[in-house]
Amino acid sequence: xxxxxxxLNIKRFFYTCENTLKKAVVPLHSIELFIILYIFLFFNxxxxxxxxxxxxxxxxxxxxxxxxxxxxxxxxxxxYRLKMKFEVLQIWGLRKS
Length: 97
Known about the structure:
It is a single chain. By secondary structure, the chain is mostly helical. It has a domain at 26-84. The protein has helices at 10-19, 31-43, 49-68, 78-83, 88-91.
């Protein structure tokens, strides 16, 4: 939110996301990150329970994001967003008002 500054107003947040953002990196919403973390989890099965809980919660969050916020099928891949130069209009197809 570097373009508009930090603000906890939820209406302004959604308005900004849908109307004024030009670029968005969103690294935590990438399938590649989840693949890496699950490989780590598979080979380190003795990790802390809190890490397992975070992974389960994050996975549910991503599944719901993909199901209800449907955009381009590749929009949740970081490499695709990098290829599109993180341009919001190209990745998510949001309209500017």
